[in-house]
Design brief:
Layout lengths: L1 E4 L13 H15 L3 E4 L6 E5 L12 E5 L11 H5 L4 E4 L2 H11 L5 E3 L19 E6 L8 H12 L5 E7 L12 E5 L4 H9 L3 E4 L8 H8 L4 E4 L14 E2 L1 E5 L9 E5 L1 H13 L1 H18 L2 H19 L1
Helix pairs in contact: 1-9, 4-7
């Protein structure tokens, strides 16, 4: 089967500053390792796959059209459902987003879930506490990713205690939060190996996000054997979250209607504060859970396995139509 990537993120020019680019690169790598022929903007291919926001969709010839799109809130932009309904199928990395596409946005073509994977480079590492419990938040400056909630809850939980430290890995160069006690800021892009090492050198990952199309950051942290505080309601991998660290939330009207219309999961602030304190008092227990869970994540979220399963099912559907 020949697959054409009909998108501004192409095999030759992949964005490297966001989840779209990362997931495109990993999907391409898996498809090629599974012996699929991948081209770009090719009307003679069997399948045309757009992995991007719907306004960038382009279709060529008579190919079978797939719109692959992650999203974070219950509603999409007004013109997106119509574009998606011009595809033969819609794919998304998250079961809850697939549900929202159908229930809230009237996407009436078949919807399938193709989750993202975890690279083996996110290897599991045992952690030992030293003089401090070191927390880590990674997620850029998008409001929904919980940077403000993380910082506020950290201050409320520990009130400047010398026994804890928070590292905020931010995307924008020059962004600085150094005026906050026990808070370290790393801004701008860092090499991949350094990013993995940053996770290995910290004890706890904190991610009170309001919504994710999949949520690469927390599952990568979990794959390293890192105890992770994460909003549970949107997570496709909720079954792997430590029940003591799975963050409560409420589905509410989005505060950012221009960018994320409809509703999002608002993390429970008091629960976040409680869980920050809980893990300091119960670190060994939480660390043991994370270490036991990490190998299961690597097995179930292997990129090649996920890609093989998804495209094998696609081939069967195409064969049944002929």
């Amino acid at each position: 089967m020949r697959i054409s990537l009909n998108t501004i993120i192409t095999a030759s020019k992949i964005r490297n500053n966001d989840g779209y680019g990362y997931a495109t690169e990993r999907m391409l790598h898996s498809l090629k390792s599974l012996n699929y022929e991948v081209t770009e903007n090719d009307g003679s291919s069997d399948v045309g796959l757009v992995f991007n926001q719907p306004q960038h969709a382009r279709w060529f010839g008579e190919q079978y059209r797939i719109m692959y799109h992650p999203w974070e809130s219950t509603l999409m932009m007004p013109d997106w459902p119509g574009i998606m309904n011009n595809a033969h199928e819609v794919w998304t990395p998250s079961p809850i987003i697939a549900k929202w596409y159908k229930e809230y946005n009237e996407v009436n073509v078949p919807i399938h879930v193709y989750e993202h994977g975890v690279d083996p480079e996110w290897e599991t590492k045992t952690r030992k506490l030293g003089d401090k419990v070191r927390f880590l938040h990674v997620g850029g400056e998008a409001h929904r990713k919980g940077m403000a909630e993380t910082l506020k809850a950290f201050r409320a939980a520990f009130n400047g205690s010398a026994d804890v430290e928070l590292t905020m890995k931010l995307g924008a160069p020059g962004f600085n939060l150094a005026h906050h006690s026990n808070v370290q800021t790393i801004s701008g892009k860092v090499p991949f190996k350094e990013l993995v090492q940053l996770h290995h050198d910290r004890h706890v990952f904190v991610y009170p996000s309001w919504g994710e199309g999949f949520g690469l950051n927390p599952i990568q942290a979990m794959a390293t054997g890192m105890p992770t505080i994460c909003t549970a309601a949107w997570a496709p991998y909720e079954r792997f979250l430590d029940p003591n660290l799975a963050l409560d939330s409420t589905l509410v009207e989005s505060p950012w209607q221009q960018h994320h219309p409809g509703k999002l999961f608002q993390p429970d602030f008091d629960d976040l504060v409680d869980k920050l304190r809980y893990i300091v008092d119960n670190y060994d227990e939480c660390h043991s859970f994370a270490q036991e869970t990490a190998p299961k994540i690597h097995r179930e979220y292997d990129w090649d396995s996920l890609t093989h399963e998804t495209f094998s099912k696609l081939e069967k559907r195409l064969c049944s139509k002929n």
